[in-house]
Design a protein that fits this description.
The chain is an alpha/beta fold. It folds into 2 domains: about 130 residues, Aconitase, domain 3 (2-Layer Sandwich), CATH 3.30.499.10; about 160 residues, Aconitase, domain 4, CATH 3.20.19.10. The protein contains 13 helices and 11 strands. The strands form 2 sheets. It has a 6-stranded mixed beta sheet with strand order 8-7-6-9-10-11, with no helix packed on it. Strands 3-2-1-4-5 form a 5-stranded parallel beta sheet. A hairpin with a 4-residue loop joins strand 9 and strand 10. Helix 3 crosses helix 5 and helix 9 packs across helix 11. Keywords: Iron, Iron-sulfur, Lyase, Metal-binding. This is Homoaconitase. InterPro entries: Acnase/IPM_dHydase_lsu_aba_1/3 (IPR015931), Acoase/IPM_deHydtase_lsu_aba (IPR001030), Aconitase/3IPM_dehydase_swvl (IPR015928), Aconitase_4Fe-4S_dom (IPR036008), AconitaseA/IPMdHydase_ssu_swvl (IPR000573), IPM_dehydratase_rel_enz (IPR050067).
Length: about 375
Protein backbone atom coordinates (compact mmCIF):
# COMPACT_ATOMS: atom_id res chain seq x y z
CA UNK A 1 0.00 0.00 0.00
CA UNK A 2 2.74 2.46 0.95
CA UNK A 3 5.85 3.04 -1.20
CA UNK A 4 8.88 1.13 0.06
CA UNK A 5 11.67 3.61 0.85
CA UNK A 6 13.69 1.08 2.83
CA UNK A 7 17.29 0.17 2.10
CA UNK A 8 16.04 -3.16 0.77
CA UNK A 9 14.50 -1.34 -2.20
CA UNK A 10 17.19 1.31 -2.69
CA UNK A 11 20.27 -0.94 -2.49
CA UNK A 12 19.96 -4.05 -4.62
CA UNK A 13 22.31 -6.36 -6.50
CA UNK A 14 21.11 -4.83 -9.78
CA UNK A 15 22.03 -1.32 -8.65
CA UNK A 16 25.43 -2.49 -7.45
CA UNK A 17 26.02 -4.10 -10.86
CA UNK A 18 25.17 -0.77 -12.52
CA UNK A 19 27.65 0.99 -10.24
CA UNK A 20 30.35 -1.56 -11.04
CA UNK A 21 29.84 -0.91 -14.74
CA UNK A 22 30.65 2.79 -14.23
CA UNK A 23 33.38 3.02 -11.55
CA UNK A 24 33.77 6.30 -9.73
CA UNK A 25 37.01 8.19 -10.35
CA UNK A 26 38.37 11.64 -9.62
CA UNK A 27 38.79 14.13 -12.46
CA UNK A 28 42.22 13.85 -14.08
CA UNK A 29 43.18 17.36 -12.95
CA UNK A 30 41.75 17.11 -9.42
CA UNK A 31 43.99 18.20 -6.53
CA UNK A 32 43.61 16.06 -3.42
CA UNK A 33 45.30 15.99 -0.03
CA UNK A 34 47.68 13.05 0.09
CA UNK A 35 47.28 12.58 3.83
CA UNK A 36 45.13 14.15 6.50
CA UNK A 37 46.73 13.84 9.91
CA UNK A 38 44.82 13.73 13.15
CA UNK A 39 46.58 15.69 15.84
CA UNK A 40 44.65 14.76 18.95
CA UNK A 41 41.11 13.52 18.93
CA UNK A 42 39.29 10.67 17.30
CA UNK A 43 35.99 10.27 19.10
CA UNK A 44 33.12 7.81 18.93
CA UNK A 45 30.69 9.76 21.05
CA UNK A 46 26.98 10.19 21.64
CA UNK A 47 26.82 6.48 20.84
CA UNK A 48 24.44 3.60 21.31
CA UNK A 49 25.62 0.08 21.92
CA UNK A 50 25.27 -0.70 18.21
CA UNK A 51 27.67 2.18 17.38
CA UNK A 52 30.21 1.03 19.96
CA UNK A 53 29.87 -2.51 18.62
CA UNK A 54 30.56 -1.28 15.07
CA UNK A 55 33.72 0.54 16.18
CA UNK A 56 34.92 -2.45 18.20
CA UNK A 57 34.41 -4.73 15.18
CA UNK A 58 37.11 -2.78 13.31
CA UNK A 59 39.63 -3.48 16.08
CA UNK A 60 38.53 -7.12 16.35
CA UNK A 61 39.09 -7.59 12.62
CA UNK A 62 42.51 -5.96 12.85
CA UNK A 63 43.38 -8.28 15.76
CA UNK A 64 43.14 -11.29 13.43
CA UNK A 65 46.26 -10.07 11.62
CA UNK A 66 47.94 -9.21 14.91
CA UNK A 67 48.12 -12.62 16.53
CA UNK A 68 44.72 -12.21 18.13
CA UNK A 69 45.84 -9.14 20.08
CA UNK A 70 43.80 -5.96 19.75
CA UNK A 71 46.14 -3.41 18.09
CA UNK A 72 46.81 -0.08 19.73
CA UNK A 73 45.72 3.28 18.39
CA UNK A 74 48.51 4.84 16.34
CA UNK A 75 50.91 7.16 18.16
CA UNK A 76 50.04 10.85 18.19
CA UNK A 77 46.31 10.16 18.09
CA UNK A 78 43.90 9.92 20.98
CA UNK A 79 40.48 8.30 20.84
CA UNK A 80 37.73 9.14 23.29
CA UNK A 81 34.52 7.19 23.76
CA UNK A 82 31.30 8.09 25.55
CA UNK A 83 28.06 6.13 25.60
CA UNK A 84 24.69 7.75 24.98
CA UNK A 85 23.49 6.57 28.40
CA UNK A 86 24.55 4.37 31.29
CA UNK A 87 22.23 1.70 29.91
CA UNK A 88 23.99 1.74 26.54
CA UNK A 89 27.39 1.58 28.23
CA UNK A 90 26.31 -1.39 30.35
CA UNK A 91 25.20 -3.23 27.21
CA UNK A 92 28.55 -2.49 25.54
CA UNK A 93 30.41 -3.65 28.64
CA UNK A 94 28.39 -6.86 28.87
CA UNK A 95 29.15 -7.69 25.22
CA UNK A 96 32.87 -6.95 25.66
CA UNK A 97 32.88 -4.22 23.00
CA UNK A 98 33.63 -1.46 25.51
CA UNK A 99 36.69 -3.34 26.78
CA UNK A 100 37.97 -3.88 23.22
CA UNK A 101 38.10 -0.12 22.70
CA UNK A 102 39.77 0.43 26.08
CA UNK A 103 42.34 -2.26 25.25
CA UNK A 104 43.08 -0.40 22.02
CA UNK A 105 43.91 2.70 24.04
CA UNK A 106 40.63 4.62 23.93
CA UNK A 107 39.85 6.85 26.89
CA UNK A 108 36.35 6.89 28.36
CA UNK A 109 34.54 10.19 28.92
CA UNK A 110 31.47 10.79 31.05
CA UNK A 111 29.76 12.34 28.00
CA UNK A 112 30.71 13.77 24.63
CA UNK A 113 30.26 17.28 26.04
CA UNK A 114 33.72 16.86 27.59
CA UNK A 115 35.20 17.12 24.09
CA UNK A 116 34.86 20.89 24.32
CA UNK A 117 37.92 21.09 26.57
CA UNK A 118 40.26 18.97 24.43
CA UNK A 119 41.22 21.53 21.74
CA UNK A 120 42.49 19.28 18.94
CA UNK A 121 43.72 20.73 15.66
CA UNK A 122 41.93 18.10 13.59
CA UNK A 123 39.44 15.51 14.77
CA UNK A 124 36.83 13.11 13.51
CA UNK A 125 33.74 12.22 15.49
CA UNK A 126 30.81 9.84 15.19
CA UNK A 127 28.57 12.31 17.01
CA UNK A 128 25.97 14.31 15.11
CA UNK A 129 27.45 17.80 14.82
CA UNK A 130 30.70 19.47 13.82
CA UNK A 131 29.98 23.18 14.22
CA UNK A 132 32.83 25.54 15.06
CA UNK A 133 33.95 25.07 18.64
CA UNK A 134 32.51 21.55 18.90
CA UNK A 135 36.01 20.21 19.58
CA UNK A 136 36.98 23.14 21.81
CA UNK A 137 38.97 25.51 19.61
CA UNK A 138 37.02 27.36 16.94
CA UNK A 139 40.03 26.86 14.68
CA UNK A 140 39.86 23.07 14.94
CA UNK A 141 38.64 21.03 11.98
CA UNK A 142 35.96 18.59 13.09
CA UNK A 143 34.98 15.92 10.58
CA UNK A 144 31.99 13.59 10.86
CA UNK A 145 32.20 9.87 10.17
CA UNK A 146 30.61 6.56 11.01
CA UNK A 147 31.89 4.60 14.04
CA UNK A 148 33.74 2.29 11.64
CA UNK A 149 35.49 5.22 9.92
CA UNK A 150 36.42 6.75 13.27
CA UNK A 151 37.91 3.45 14.48
CA UNK A 152 39.79 2.84 11.21
CA UNK A 153 41.17 6.38 11.35
CA UNK A 154 42.41 5.82 14.90
CA UNK A 155 44.34 2.76 13.73
CA UNK A 156 45.78 4.42 10.63
CA UNK A 157 46.51 7.93 11.91
CA UNK A 158 44.75 9.53 8.96
CA UNK A 159 41.07 9.60 8.08
CA UNK A 160 40.47 6.17 6.59
CA UNK A 161 37.62 3.91 5.64
CA UNK A 162 37.19 0.39 7.01
CA UNK A 163 39.72 -1.80 5.23
CA UNK A 164 42.51 0.79 5.24
CA UNK A 165 43.71 -0.54 8.59
CA UNK A 166 44.52 -4.00 7.19
CA UNK A 167 48.10 -3.00 6.44
CA UNK A 168 48.72 -4.99 3.27
CA UNK A 169 51.79 -2.89 2.54
CA UNK A 170 50.31 -1.85 -0.80
CA UNK A 171 49.04 1.70 -1.36
CA UNK A 172 45.30 2.05 -1.56
CA UNK A 173 43.80 2.78 -4.97
CA UNK A 174 40.41 3.85 -6.27
CA UNK A 175 39.90 0.32 -7.58
CA UNK A 176 40.75 -1.41 -4.30
CA UNK A 177 38.60 0.98 -2.28
CA UNK A 178 35.76 0.50 -4.75
CA UNK A 179 36.03 -3.28 -4.52
CA UNK A 180 35.94 -3.05 -0.72
CA UNK A 181 32.82 -0.91 -0.94
CA UNK A 182 31.11 -3.41 -3.27
CA UNK A 183 31.92 -6.26 -0.87
CA UNK A 184 30.51 -4.31 2.06
CA UNK A 185 27.33 -3.48 0.12
CA UNK A 186 26.92 -7.10 -0.96
CA UNK A 187 27.22 -8.12 2.68
CA UNK A 188 24.73 -5.42 3.65
CA UNK A 189 22.23 -6.61 1.03
CA UNK A 190 22.57 -10.16 2.28
CA UNK A 191 21.88 -9.04 5.83
CA UNK A 192 18.81 -7.07 4.75
CA UNK A 193 17.44 -9.95 2.69
CA UNK A 194 17.91 -12.39 5.54
CA UNK A 195 16.41 -10.14 8.20
CA UNK A 196 12.86 -10.89 9.19
CA UNK A 197 10.72 -7.78 9.26
CA UNK A 198 8.05 -9.38 11.40
CA UNK A 199 7.54 -8.89 15.09
CA UNK A 200 9.71 -11.79 16.23
CA UNK A 201 12.07 -9.56 18.19
CA UNK A 202 11.97 -9.09 21.95
CA UNK A 203 8.94 -7.26 23.31
CA UNK A 204 9.37 -3.68 24.45
CA UNK A 205 9.00 -3.17 28.18
CA UNK A 206 5.90 -1.10 28.92
CA UNK A 207 5.89 1.14 31.99
CA UNK A 208 2.78 1.47 34.19
CA UNK A 209 0.40 4.06 32.78
CA UNK A 210 1.61 3.72 29.19
CA UNK A 211 -0.67 1.79 26.80
CA UNK A 212 0.50 -1.50 25.31
CA UNK A 213 -1.38 -0.71 22.10
CA UNK A 214 -3.57 1.96 20.51
CA UNK A 215 -6.25 1.28 17.90
CA UNK A 216 -8.66 3.90 16.53
CA UNK A 217 -10.13 5.23 13.30
CA UNK A 218 -8.06 7.54 11.09
CA UNK A 219 -9.34 11.06 10.49
CA UNK A 220 -7.42 12.66 7.62
CA UNK A 221 -6.50 16.32 7.14
CA UNK A 222 -6.09 16.89 3.42
CA UNK A 223 -3.24 19.39 3.62
CA UNK A 224 0.53 19.49 3.19
CA UNK A 225 2.87 21.81 5.12
CA UNK A 226 0.30 22.59 7.78
CA UNK A 227 1.99 25.14 10.01
CA UNK A 228 1.46 25.81 13.70
CA UNK A 229 -0.65 28.93 13.02
CA UNK A 230 -3.23 26.70 11.33
CA UNK A 231 -3.20 24.33 14.29
CA UNK A 232 -3.46 27.04 16.97
CA UNK A 233 -4.29 30.68 16.11
CA UNK A 234 -1.39 33.11 16.15
CA UNK A 235 -3.65 35.69 17.81
CA UNK A 236 -3.87 33.51 20.94
CA UNK A 237 -0.21 32.55 21.17
CA UNK A 238 0.75 35.12 23.80
CA UNK A 239 -2.47 35.09 25.78
CA UNK A 240 -1.97 33.88 29.33
CA UNK A 241 -4.24 31.67 31.43
CA UNK A 242 -6.04 30.20 28.41
CA UNK A 243 -8.30 27.41 29.64
CA UNK A 244 -8.22 23.91 28.21
CA UNK A 245 -11.74 24.43 26.87
CA UNK A 246 -10.71 27.63 25.05
CA UNK A 247 -7.68 25.90 23.54
CA UNK A 248 -9.89 23.05 22.37
CA UNK A 249 -12.38 25.44 20.76
CA UNK A 250 -9.57 27.24 18.90
CA UNK A 251 -7.76 24.11 17.69
CA UNK A 252 -7.70 23.85 13.85
CA UNK A 253 -10.18 26.73 13.43
CA UNK A 254 -7.86 28.55 11.02
CA UNK A 255 -7.50 25.38 8.95
CA UNK A 256 -11.01 23.97 8.97
CA UNK A 257 -13.84 25.62 10.96
CA UNK A 258 -15.71 22.29 10.85
CA UNK A 259 -12.76 20.21 12.06
CA UNK A 260 -14.25 19.45 15.46
CA UNK A 261 -17.57 18.46 13.91
CA UNK A 262 -15.75 15.81 11.89
CA UNK A 263 -13.19 14.59 14.43
CA UNK A 264 -13.95 12.60 17.56
CA UNK A 265 -12.06 12.11 20.82
CA UNK A 266 -9.23 9.56 20.57
CA UNK A 267 -9.18 9.64 16.75
CA UNK A 268 -5.81 9.02 15.15
CA UNK A 269 -5.03 12.21 13.28
CA UNK A 270 -3.26 11.67 9.96
CA UNK A 271 -2.03 14.46 7.70
CA UNK A 272 -0.14 14.99 4.49
CA UNK A 273 3.54 15.94 4.42
CA UNK A 274 5.15 18.61 6.60
CA UNK A 275 2.69 18.64 9.49
CA UNK A 276 3.56 21.13 12.25
CA UNK A 277 6.07 23.23 10.32
CA UNK A 278 6.67 26.88 11.18
CA UNK A 279 7.20 28.29 14.66
CA UNK A 280 7.89 25.84 17.48
CA UNK A 281 4.89 26.75 19.62
CA UNK A 282 3.97 24.34 22.35
CA UNK A 283 0.29 25.37 22.09
CA UNK A 284 0.09 23.55 18.76
CA UNK A 285 0.68 20.30 20.66
CA UNK A 286 -1.32 21.11 23.79
CA UNK A 287 -4.33 22.27 21.73
CA UNK A 288 -4.46 18.88 19.99
CA UNK A 289 -4.34 17.21 23.40
CA UNK A 290 -7.15 19.52 24.54
CA UNK A 291 -9.49 18.00 21.93
CA UNK A 292 -8.55 14.51 23.23
CA UNK A 293 -6.46 13.48 20.23
CA UNK A 294 -3.32 11.76 21.44
CA UNK A 295 -1.82 10.27 18.30
CA UNK A 296 -0.71 12.15 15.16
CA UNK A 297 0.82 10.49 12.08
CA UNK A 298 2.32 12.80 9.45
CA UNK A 299 3.39 12.05 5.91
CA UNK A 300 0.82 9.50 4.69
CA UNK A 301 0.03 11.47 1.54
CA UNK A 302 0.70 8.35 -0.57
CA UNK A 303 -2.23 6.59 1.10
CA UNK A 304 -4.59 9.54 0.56
CA UNK A 305 -3.59 11.32 -2.68
CA UNK A 306 -4.92 14.75 -3.55
CA UNK A 307 -8.40 14.64 -5.05
CA UNK A 308 -9.91 17.81 -6.54
CA UNK A 309 -13.37 16.27 -6.21
CA UNK A 310 -13.00 15.97 -2.45
CA UNK A 311 -14.72 19.09 -1.05
CA UNK A 312 -13.82 18.68 2.61
CA UNK A 313 -10.43 19.59 4.15
CA UNK A 314 -11.01 17.01 6.92
CA UNK A 315 -12.75 13.68 6.48
CA UNK A 316 -13.24 10.38 8.22
CA UNK A 317 -11.61 7.53 6.34
CA UNK A 318 -13.19 4.43 7.83
CA UNK A 319 -9.65 3.07 8.07
CA UNK A 320 -8.18 1.98 11.38
CA UNK A 321 -4.62 2.24 12.64
CA UNK A 322 -3.22 0.08 15.40
CA UNK A 323 0.08 0.82 17.10
CA UNK A 324 1.36 -2.25 18.92
CA UNK A 325 3.83 -0.65 21.32
CA UNK A 326 5.19 -3.94 22.67
CA UNK A 327 5.97 -5.24 19.17
CA UNK A 328 7.01 -1.82 17.77
CA UNK A 329 4.64 -2.25 14.84
CA UNK A 330 1.96 -0.15 13.15
CA UNK A 331 -0.88 -1.90 11.32
CA UNK A 332 -3.38 -0.19 9.01
CA UNK A 333 -6.65 -1.71 7.83
CA UNK A 334 -8.46 -0.11 4.87
CA UNK A 335 -11.98 -0.17 6.24
CA UNK A 336 -13.88 -3.06 7.76
CA UNK A 337 -12.67 -6.29 6.18
CA UNK A 338 -10.28 -4.35 3.92
CA UNK A 339 -6.64 -4.86 3.03
CA UNK A 340 -4.18 -4.80 5.91
CA UNK A 341 -0.57 -3.66 5.93
CA UNK A 342 2.07 -3.43 8.63
CA UNK A 343 5.27 -1.48 9.20
CA UNK A 344 7.92 -1.84 11.89
CA UNK A 345 8.59 1.36 13.84
CA UNK A 346 11.06 2.44 16.49
CA UNK A 347 10.82 1.53 20.15
CA UNK A 348 9.56 4.04 22.70
CA UNK A 349 12.31 4.30 25.36
CA UNK A 350 11.33 4.12 29.04
CA UNK A 351 12.08 7.79 29.79
CA UNK A 352 9.73 8.94 27.00
CA UNK A 353 7.05 6.51 28.18
CA UNK A 354 7.35 7.92 31.69
CA UNK A 355 6.98 11.53 30.51
CA UNK A 356 3.86 10.68 28.51
CA UNK A 357 2.35 8.48 31.24
CA UNK A 358 2.79 11.23 33.83
CA UNK A 359 1.12 13.83 31.61
CA UNK A 360 4.09 15.70 30.18
CA UNK A 361 7.52 17.00 31.11
CA UNK A 362 6.21 19.51 33.67
CA UNK A 363 4.32 16.78 35.50
CA UNK A 364 7.36 14.53 35.45
CA UNK A 365 9.47 17.32 36.99
CA UNK A 366 6.85 17.79 39.71
CA UNK A 367 6.84 14.04 40.27
CA UNK A 368 10.63 13.91 40.66
CA UNK A 369 10.69 16.95 42.96
CA UNK A 370 8.01 15.40 45.12
CA UNK A 371 10.01 12.18 45.40
CA UNK A 372 13.14 14.12 46.37
CA UNK A 373 11.40 16.22 49.04
Amino acid sequence: MFPDHSAKERITHERIDELCASPLAADFDALCAKQLYLNLVVSCTNSRHSDIQAAAAVFKEAAKANGGVVPKIVGGVKMFIAAASSREQEAAEDSGDWQVLLDAGAEALVSDSALGSLNPEIGITASNCNFKGRMGSREALAYLGSPEVVAASALKGIISGPGAYKGSGQPRSVESDFNDMVQQLDSFIGNVESTETSSNGPAVEILPGFPESVREEIVFMDIDSQDTDQIYPRSMTYESNVSKEAMANACMKDYDPDFQKVSRPNDILVSGNGFGCGSSREQAATAILAISIHFVVAGLRAAFPKDAKRPFPTFRTGWTLKWDVKKSMVQVQEGEGGEESAENVGDIPPNVQEIIALGGLHERCRHELKKAS
